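User: Hello! I'm new to structural biology and keep hearing that structure can be predicted from sequence alone. Could you demonstrate with Sulfatase N-terminal domain-containing protein? Please show me the input and the output so I can see what each looks like.

Assistant: Of course. The first part below is the input, the amino acid sequence of Sulfatase N-terminal domain-containing protein. The second part is the output, the predicted structure written as tokens.
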Amino acid sequence: MKEYFTAKKTLPILAGLAAGLYPVLFYYSRNFERAKSWDHVFHFVLFYIIFSVIAFTIVYRIFKIKSLVRYSKFALPFLNITVFLYFLKTFTFVHPERKIMVGILVVAVLFSYFLNKHFKKLLAFQFILAAIGLFNVLQLIYEKITYDDSWLEQPDAIEEVVFKKKPNVYFIEPDGYVSFSELKSDFYNVENSEFEGFLKQNNFKTYPDFRTNYKSTLASNSAAFSMKHHYHNFDADFEEVENARQIIISDNPVLNAFKNNGYETYFLSEKKYLLLNRPELGYHHSNIDYDDIQYLHNDMGPDELIVEPFSDYLNDGIDKPKFFFVEILKPWHIRTGKGNESGPEVVASERQKYIDRLRESNAMMTEMIQNILKKDPGALIMIMADHGGFVGLEYTRQANIKTQDPQIINSVFSAILTIHWPNNEIPSYDTELQSPVNVFRILLSYLSENETYLEHLQPDESFVAIQEGAPKGIYKYINDAREIVFEKQEPKNK
């Protein structure tokens, strides 16, 4: 092994491998959920490791040319440090670009000129870092392999449900849209009568006390589509849910029920957020092409067209009942991080931004609903948000600090639910529509005309990951009786 490490002919291979290996492992150790598909693995290995080795080997041979050989001792150290630091910058999304690049080049020049005789020590250090990164990644892989997903198991045979009614079903999810009653609260104080009137005129029934079970998109939708509570897997640090995107996009009892009953299924979204780790698409159609999803990302990317593709799918001529899941990333929520500014001015500014996005959301939904009802007056249209807008707080992570303030809790957990029932035939048990975890079980009961599925409704409770103000953990904030509580949750086997 020592001979291989010190042999000149293997030096460019080792230099290229060392430059790319640790940055890739570093990224995986901190962003495993974003990059756990085999597509990601192939991409990172190919572009950041194999291509590096090839490039280093080519450069090494070029500097063996007689006219360049005197510079050869500088070439690999310079290239290694430049590539290594550039990859780290890339994987950590550090800005500004120009200043960082100048700094990288300065370090590379200084090391390659003054310290090139220590190059093999540098490679050894990079491989030590890679070994540490590999250990961390292997720990994560072990956790994923041994993860217990038994919480997804259904208590009955609802996955084999047979529909007796087959209207087209449109699930429109405006991210962060609170209930109409919450919009009238002191925190929001939004005039929204035009949109509310439009819905009422078109025979939508609104459920004013509806609230979400979890405060994030992935956690809320995982519970909704699985029709089960996950309690954040009792992990306050991770806060989301294991395999959330796979549950929502690839395979869940709700999507399978529609497909098993002959429905053509469609997923449309303004953003690539639910597809970032490239889960297998369980829907028949989507407005997002996987070829357009970047392998490296630290945000949700540009907006995707949604109204136009939706209209196209609405009129695609497929002679089957249809199920649509349409995700509108508006009005969204206030800023995520604390930032450099705080105080009432920040709260007021974030509130105004929320209101502006709410108007855009209203306009989009109005156009879509008009198109639906013009073509499909017997449609089942459900508008349900994933969580609240967090207006009144300075940033969303503030919700991870313990509070018993009803205004804050309602701002986080309040969510819109309004439904256009086919032919205005509203089931008597629609009073059970209290939170997302039970909504689809109730809808499947309605479509199958089988109320026995209602015997296994989940508690309409809301949970939050607390990280400050109390021992870290998952806490119940709202109980089944709509009372604000503070009860730490533990796995049943503890």
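User: So the tokens describe the shape?

Assistant: Right, they're a compact way of writing down the 3D structure. Reading them back into a model, for example: The mean pLDDT is 94.
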